[in-house]
Amino acid sequence: MTILVRRTKGGLPANKIRAAGEAISKGRIVVFPTETVYGIGGDALDEDAVRSIFRIKGRPPDNPVIVHIARISDVQPLVSEVPETARILMEAFWPGPLTLVMKKSEAVPKAVTGGLGNVSVRMPANSVALSLIKAAGTPVAAPSANLSGRPSITTFSEAVAELDGRVDFIIDGGKCRIGVESTVVDMTRKIPLLLRPGGLPVEEIERVIGSIDIHPAASGRGKFRGRAPSPGMKYRHYSPVHSSVVLFEKEQTSGPSIAEARDRLLSSGFTVAMLVTDEARLRKGVVVRLGSSKEPERIAKSLFSAMRQLDRSRVDFILAEGIDEKGIGLAVMNRLRRASGGNGPEGLEKLIALKRGAQR
Length: 360
Ligand code: TXA
Ligand code: MG
Fold this sequence. Notes:
By secondary structure, this protein is of the alpha/beta class. About 30% of the residues lie in helices and about 15% in strands. Strands 1-8-2-3-7-4-6-5-9-10-11 form an eleven-stranded mixed sheet, with helices on both faces. It has a four-stranded parallel sheet with strand order 12-15-13-14, sandwiched between helices. Strand 9 (about 185) and strand 10 form a beta hairpin. Helix 1 (about 15-25) packs across helix 5. The longest helix has 17 residues, at about 295-310. The chain is globular. Threonylcarbamoyladenylate binds near residues 37, 99, 231 and 232.
């Protein structure tokens, strides 16, 4: 049975958060809010607990999970060394949406790192998450709470719909403030390497430690080949179950426009929704506006929820408008590119044929 910890007028009951934390220390699994997305957490030092997280999510065992801590000093026992630049970033951005990859210590079990020699650590900027980790008295391993491959979870009701009955606790933290996952940076190299763009813009990191390297897969473009420095890069990700996402990049030069694609799909009997900025000039059909292109933070905040909502309504196609890759826009584009699996307007006819085949 899953215990649902709901918010009351006075906020979340502290004794229930404490109970959930104590449950983690006994090997139980708790879904909890962070400022980025909801996480599904267990004791990072308990191999069995970590394995049950993988089982519940259906996550490939070689894809490592992030270890969450409540104080900067808690990083020490998890790593064999803290590089100077990592120390500077922790002081500048923790608690916050930044995950740092460092050399692991003996204390970290294999299940956490997927067998890699590095561990990723972050301190979330969310009071519920921090109280929970403190109450657990142990670092908390927590991937995003979605089932493997699906869009991340950013509201309590989505968490309940996906995980009720599969975990021990689900804690209501309302809607996540940021809405996309943390930025992941590999600190084990001379020049730090961005593995996943996220809630903390690269520009902000570079303002503090100078320019960093950007992994070519960080844009979310193309299929990843070869050995991934971050195994999450090579797996299908953020994809709705029913709906096919088609991404219209800003610099698109060939294929139909969003309006033309909509008309083509509607006349072929498909259901269509458009996931666009406030500025998009579209009237006909289901138009979901995520925010102004000048405020990519607002777009990031509702992106996953909107995809989940459209998927629930079983719309056949989601036509998504690309935005600038500035600031958090890079994280938004990474998620959209991966959700679309590379489907753009040029491939629309092929996609229609595929979808017809699947519906038959
Ligand atoms: O915002 C977030 O980061 C959320 C919340 C819950 O904290 N967590 C999250 O975890 O997004 P997850 O497991 O969905 O994504 C973690 C990403 C994966 O792409 C994984 O491959 C990468 O980080 N990663 C984790 N540990 C790593 C390591 N030791 N080396 C390289 N990449 C790692
Ligand atoms: Mg995830």
